[in-house]
Write a structure and sequence with these properties.
It contains 11 helices and no strands. By secondary structure, it is mainly alpha-helical. The radius of gyration is 19 Å and the shape is globular. The N and C termini lie far apart (43 Å).
Length: 253
């Protein structure tokens, strides 16, 4: 642990754990399940929020398809493995979120959050591998693959949402801090773009009913949240694939 970025990251994680343990408990607001657009389409309840999760599936399948034919980044295959883990998490999040929106309640929301915890762990692992230390990334992913589901279990078992909220928003803050470090590789992943679309997604979620009203019931804020979050994933990993074509052309010449 000689490198200061690793030490800073460890301190940040310790702060998150401390906040999760000692901040006052938060209960899940049951009004959260009351989304603005609850209109069914045929046999599909809450259809807009349910079906717009297809955006996650499209983003995940697009990335996996590009990853399958990608031959770059051979010097650091860990990056490719973490991107694959992220994309699998995105696919599972899309399926779990569709399941949740069919009949929103705490039990289904827990499944949704468990799927998101996989994507979250992979995103933080990618941040560390790309901006902090490649050797440190595996431990970070393993740690957050444990902590993420643990916070969901704590919420279900005790009703305390604080650990999950701290992990989610604290993790985003860590990405915001470390994404400004230069990439360890030729061209880094677009974490600033991910943060931009994540911020827009959370804003749309907060303005769910207002956006629904202003759009004359065309689209709700929560529906937009799904699309914006999926775009954020594509924006994050797209620089990785943009290197494939120049490398392929250089081989031909």
């Amino acid at each position: 642990m000689r490198d200061s970025p690793e030490k800073i990251f460890i301190v940040c994680v310790c702060l998150l754990i401390g906040c999760a343990l000692f901040l006052p408990p938060i209960a899940q607001d049951q009004n959260y399940h009351e989304f603005a657009d609850q209109r069914p389409w045929g046999v599909v309840p809450n259809a807009a929020d349910t079906l717009r999760n297809l955006a996650y599936l499209v983003a995940g399948l697009w990335g996996i398809r590009r990853l399958a034919g990608y031959r770059g980044h051979a010097s650091n295959p860990l990056i490719l493995r973490l991107v694959c883990l992220l994309l699998i998490g995105v696919l599972l999040t899309g399926l779990a979120s569709m399941f949740y929106h069919l009949a929103p309640n705490d039990s289904r929301l827990a499944i949704d959050r468990l799927a998101m915890s996989l994507s979250f762990a992979a995103a933080l692992g990618l941040l560390v591998a790309d901006r902090v230390s490649v050797r440190f990334a595996v431990g970070v992913v393993a740690g957050f693959l444990f902590l993420g589901p643990l916070t969901v279990w704590v919420w279900i078992a005790s009703g305390n949402l604080t650990p999950y909220a701290v992990l989610q928003f604290g993790g985003v803050a860590m990405i915001a801090v470390f994404c400004w470090r230069p990439s360890l590789h030729i061209r880094g992943l677009n974490f600033s773009g991910l943060l931009l679309f994540y911020g827009l997604a959370k804003l749309a979620e907060l303005l769910d009913s207002r956006i629904f009203e202003l759009s004359l019931a065309l689209v709700s804020g929560h529906t937009l949240k799904h699309v914006l979050a999926a775009i954020g994933i594509v924006v994050l990993v797209s620089p990785l694939f943009s290197r494939a074509r120049p490398q392929a052309e250089s081989v031909k010449t």
